[in-house]
Amino acid sequence: MKTKKIFLSEEEIPRQWYNILADIKMNPPLGPDGKPVTPDMLAPVFPMNLIEQEVSTQRWIDIPDEVLKIYRIWRPSPLVRAFSLEKALDTPAHIYFKYEGTSPPGSHKPNTAVPQAYYNKVFGIKRLVTETGAGQWGSALAFACAQLGLGCKVYMVRVSFDQKPYRKVMMQTWGADCVPSPSTETKAGRDILAQHPDSSGSLGIAISEAVEAAVSDASGKTRYSLGSVLNHVMLHQTVIGLEAQKQMKIAGEYPDVVIGCAGGGSNFAGLAFPFVLDKMNGRQIAIYPVEPAACPTLTKAPFVYDHGDTAGYTPLLPMYSLGHTFMPPPVHAGGLRYHGMAPTVSQLVVEGLLEPRSYGQMATFEAGMLLARTEGIIPAPETNHALACVVDEARRAKEEGKAKVILFNWSGHGLIDLGSYEKYLSGSLKDFDYPAQEIEEAGKILAKYPKPQLLKSR
Amino acid sequence: MGAEPETSDAASLSRRCPRLGGPVTLGYCMSCEQQRPCLKITDCWWETFDIVRYLQDHLPADHFKQLMQARPKPKIASLVELIEKARKGAES
Fold it and tell me: Is the pLDDT of residue A37 over 80?
């Protein structure tokens, strides 16, 4: 019988993280005044040891022993050969995934939550505050704070708080205080509630509350923690890719394609950055960050959009359908447009080392269902973006008759995020051909505002 | 083409929010930023129907223009802004 899962021993957990800032040039982050942000400007929300990591250009950074000790609760995570998926797709491709759903909160997020909590503790911080949307990050930080004996406060966007009661319970079980945002505990929250008592909240409001809670603590013992986007977060996540490299070596293979979903960039970067280093050193490898397909006519993000068209998947719409002269020109939708994307990931797109892909909502859920029914694990909904790309690549390998090796990051399980699956299974998430007979009023809307035609420019 | 639909008809449409990680209604997306639409509303809803035309029809012209012309801020810049805002709020 062929080996399905490749494990490493605890002794084989990498002892250093890989810092991509050693190998790429980045524009300095600018503040609102257009001048470069200095470390002291971030000191009210982050401890200086993490700020130093944020700007460090040292290639390899030691993982502290206390972090390694906690990593051992779930790391090394397994590398799994997706034999059942391969069979279902009848593809010659060899498909592997790094499974990050084995962590206590069920996602890759603790890979950075633990070191962030550790560095804060070393700096003398007693309590961390954060915001959370789906609750993955909030529960990861709650877990990390419990391990390190820190207090933890999580502002969870009201709409998610109501939808996902078990996330709240997870956080509380680990000792965190999780409140719906907007809350009455901050000025930012109170201001919103005064105007809109029934506010469902938003990530923007929750972040404002968390930052205010950190900044306004007169004791100076509270800091803010962010689970994605920032350089030190990407750094901590590289433990995923560094483990995967060892495991692929045991498998006797090297990936032709590396794939990860890219929301804020952290799980993608975690798997991909060590392979990006290989690519910089001459390896032939395609690396795809996968994101939701965005509005093709309204690509309006800065810089990356102007230079990042390396995807080969560029849906464009005719501008005349809008008829507003102030609209930006239709550039392309293949870039990484989400404003929460990690600058390092965006920079690698600009440099042509990454090739962004995008998939519509339905394709991602179809892929998620396929993986659940073949490999058995229900994926976190965001993981489904990577899976849609994996399925595409596997089918392409079949068409080309190539036994490509595909490696992707299975960033988490979806067991506490089943609401989206419920919507999908009940037909509420349909993108196309909304049946008016089933949902009459919605059908009227869609008849009046038909979906733009999706065209591929090449 | 049918009669002009009420806003509430569309407001019940649902999809997964990539920022929150769960299902939300179009009604939420139209109002989640202090009663203004989410900056990503077009990026998310274009798959389902012509959200741009819908926004044109249902937003005041100046709100629509602001939404279409909005540029996202880098994360660090937003954080620095929030720190300043929180500091000023604490002082007042």
Answer: yes
pLDDT for residue A244: 98
Task: Say if CB A446 and CB A305 are below 8 A apart.
Answer: no
Structure tokens at A237: 């996540």
Residue B16 to residue A423, Cβ atoms within 8 A: yes
Counting beta carbons within 10 angstroms of the beta carbon of residue A114, is it exposed (0 to 12), middle (13 to 18) or buried (19 or more)?
buried
Mean pLDDT of the A203-228 span = 95
Q: Does B51 touch chain A (CB under 8 A)?
A: yes
Measured between beta carbons, which residues in chain A are less than 8 angstroms from residue B37? none
Q: Select the residue from B6, B8, B30, B52 to test the A interface by mutation, using most A Cβ atoms within 10 A.
A: B52
Asked if B22 has any chain A CB less than 8 Å from its own CB, the reply is yes
What are the chain B neighbours of A381 within 8 Å (beta carbons)? 16, 21
- Interface check B65 vs A, CB under 8 A: yes
Chain B residue closest to A54 (CA)? B76
> What are the backbone angles phi and psi of residue A218, rounded to the nearest 5°?
-65, -25
Burial environment of residue A216 by CB neighbours within 10 A (0 to 12, 13 to 18, 19 or more): middle
B49/chain A closest Cα distance in angstroms: 4
Distance between CA atoms of A331 and A309, rounded to whole angstroms?
9
Long-range contacts, stretch A425-428, CB < 8 angstroms, 24+ apart: A428/B14, A428/B23
Which helix (H) or strand (E) covers residue A97, if one does? strand A94-99
Cβ neighbours of A295 in B, within 8 Å = 42-46, 51-52
For residue B44, the chain A residues in CB contact (below 8 A) are: 292, 294-295
Chain A touched by B10 (CB under 8 Å): yes
Question: Is the backbone peptide bond immediately before A343 cis, with ω within 30 degrees of 0?
Answer: no
With a threshold of 0.90, tell me whether the complex ipTM lies above it: no
CA distances from B54 to A3, A391, B9 (A): 53, 34, 12
Q: Residue A288's pLDDT is what? A: 96
Inter-chain contact B47–A451, Cβ cutoff 8 Å? yes
Q: What is the pLDDT along chain B (92 residues), one digit of tens a residue?
A: 333 344 456 778 888 898 888 889 999 999 998 889 998 898 888 878 888 888 888 999 999 988 887 777 788 888 999 999 999 887 77
Q: What is the model's pLDDT at position A430?
A: 62
- What is the DSSP code (8-state) at residue A262? -
Q: How far is CA A265 from CA A227, A270, A385, in A?
A: 10, 8, 13
CB contact under 8 A, B90 and A163: no
Q: What is the pTM of this model?
A: 0.87
B33 class by beta-carbon count within 10 Å (0-12 exposed, 13-18 middle, 19+ buried): middle
Shortest CA distance to B26 belongs to which of B55, B4, B1? Answer: B55
